[in-house]
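Progress report, Aim 2. The chain analyzed during this reporting quarter is listed below.
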Amino acid sequence: MSSTNETAIITLYRLGIVLPVQVKVNHFEQGGHDDHGSYGSTSETFVVQSDLEVVAFTEFGEKFAMAIMGDVKDEYVPPIFPETKINLKD
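Predicted structure tokens for the chain:
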């Protein structure tokens, strides 16, 4: 990303027009045995925000764009981001 684009996206983020997408991370740890005995497997799910490489418009951002550009619904279809999952195994 160029420094001009980087500055622009940071400004849009600070204004509340765009937000980074959220990524769901699944952490799994297998069970085992240690000095305190045996333990079972565990699994936790976290939701973290990605960096500003991929963003989505906020409701305010969509209204802001509408005010600036007018009705462009026939010219632009916002993307539908699939749910991103990352599985981490120890």
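The beta strands are 18-20, 22-29, 32-34, 37-39, 42-49, 55-57, 85-89. The radius of gyration is 20 Å. These observations will guide the mutagenesis work planned for the next reporting period.
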